[in-house]
Amino acid sequence: MSRQADPVVETPAGSVRGLRDGSGERYRALPYAAAPTGAGRFAPPAAHPGWSGVRDGTRPSPTAPQPTRDFGRLDMVPYFGPGWVPGREYLTVDVHTPAADGARRPVMVFVHGGGFVTGSNRAALYDGRAFARDGIVLVTVNYRLGIPGFLDLAGAPVNRGLLDVLAALRWVHDTVEAFGGDPGNVTVFGQSAGATLTGALLATPEAEGLFRRAIVQSGNGTGAFTPEQAQRVTATAAAALGVEPTAEAFAPIPDERFLTILPALAGLDLRTGTARDPLAGLSPFSLVLPVQPADALAEGPAGDVDLLIGTNTEEGRLYLVPQGHLESTTEADVLAVATRVHADPQTALAAHRAARPGGTPGELRSAVLGQALFESGTRRLAQAHARISGGSTHVYSFGYRSTALEGRLGAAHTVELPFVFDIADKPWLHGDTCLLGPAPAPPGLAARIHGAWVAFAHTGNPGWAPYAPQRPAVEILGA
After folding, report:
1. Which of 64, 250, 251, 414 sits at a 20 to 30 Å CA gap from 149?
2. Which of 413, 416, 430, 450 is catalytic?
3. Active site residue: 25, 112, 177, 192, which one?
4. Catalytic residue status for 413
5. CB atoms near residue 98 (< 10 Å)
6. Do residues 175 and 12 touch, judged by C-beta distance below 8 A?
7. What pLDDT score does 2 carry?
8. Count of CA atoms in the C-beta half-sphere (13 A) of 184
9. Quick one: which of 138, 144, 192, 185 has its CA closest to 166?
10. From 25, 177, 314, 315, the catalytic residue
11. Is 392 a catalytic residue?
12. Contact present, 149 and 74 (Cβ < 8 Å)
């Protein structure tokens, strides 16, 4: 296609050129905030100054500084993307739209996962073509990660990564009409850490009016650190760097140095007299809040927001099977993780054993992890939303078992994503070490799940009965 045929859109910040193909139009690396450099990495997101001329929106942006993640035998590159692609201007969004024609279509804003330390909108799993094909304007967001995004420092606002997502939603509100989207019909959705951020938005007063609907895929409505827990991480990071735990002291330190100290933060014991470790030691970063989002929904826009929320049935297997830990787990390992996440680990383990007669230690460990990391917080968030929202809560359970790694990966964390984005037939997702395994995806499952997400973005109804505390309806997807 010639350059003359490429679409150009006028936005409040300036003109941008995109690419047109059979699925619609795509505009990449659109900045929603100024580049976070130096001391600005620890400041709230600042307004972007805009540009003159026509900006090239045909190439992907840099990504937030992040370490390389290794998931053993499982190829997780489609999930994590290219890793750190250095560059100043990474607080950006990509937009995939049927056409930038002023048609006011539903908008979906996706917030990626990655444990608050990795990921970007460049990951292959977040392919927007199916959403554009089905009349949705899809916006995918990058945000600050790790120390710049989530370390609690004196002299800096907390939860800077969450502030970035808020800034991106404001950009959508002010700009998406130019790309054929309806700013009054925005669905924010996220997976894993992105889902936890989405859940927090439901309890954030500043998010009022920025979205109409929300989808929380395998998040944790009780996954925030207390200020005491966050300060334990901060003290360890400052000691590893040899500086005071302040934004001023951290400002001159290059991003590369922040990445080198991350191993010193891994596995910190974050248990306190009042709280367990909500992330079971899998990440030293999370939101920092005095009250968990599931307990603070009434403070934000949640009562006026439709919610679709759910988990996978074997979430914890992602953290055990690829590394060979499912078979090597001992009873002592099971007790150790239960002690980390439960005030009464023996009672919790008794309940898990009763639910899984004959379960191996690895299966019990997977169940403990899945419940602590995702299921309990999801249930609390769904129940809290149902109490205040008047029938606009819909809950799902995703049970399709990936055949990866000799069929052992199962319905693990992240396995639902190819179905949500309707790309489950892609060859690079199939093979024994690929996310979906060697077996073909079940016919019609991706169309059903993706279609439910699209329907929810249009109407707030994914196609099944709403959830209520007295009638806890849960739709089973891909059992």
Report:
1. 414
2. 413
3. 192
4. yes
5. 20
6. yes
7. 41
8. 2
9. 144
10. 315
11. no
12. no
The stretches in the chain having pLDDT less than 50 are: 1-4
Q: Residue type for 215, please?
A: I
Which ranges constitute the DSSP H helices of 329-463? 331-341, 345-355, 361-370, 376-389, 404-407, 417-420, 445-459
Residues 173-212: tens digit of each pLDDT: 999 999 999 999 999 999 999 999 999 999 999 999 999 9
- Count: domains in the chain: 1
Query: What is d(CA 324, CA 312) in angstroms, rounded to the nearest whole number?
Result: 20
The CATH number for 337's domain is: 3.40.50.1820
Q: Is 192 a catalytic residue?
A: yes
Q: Give 391's contacts (C-beta < 8 A, 6+ positions apart).
A: 466, 468
Asked if residue 256 lies in contact with residue 66, where contact means CB atoms within 8 angstroms, the answer is no
The overall pTM is greater than 0.85 = yes
Q: What is the pLDDT of residue 3?
A: 45
- Measuring CA to CA, which residue among 35, 6, 3, 357 is closest to residue 164? 35
pLDDT digits (tens, 9 = 90+) for 287-316: 999 999 999 999 999 999 999 999 999 999
CA distances from 252 to 12, 41, 116, 241, 448 (A): 33, 10, 22, 12, 50
Give residue 108's domain range.
3-477
> What pLDDT shows up at residue 363?
96
Q: Give the closest residue to 113 by CA, choosing from 265, 286, 277.
A: 286
Q: How many residues does the chain have?
A: 479
Per-residue pLDDT at 102: 85
Amino acid residing at 202: L
Q: Extract the tokens encoding 68.
A: 């390389």
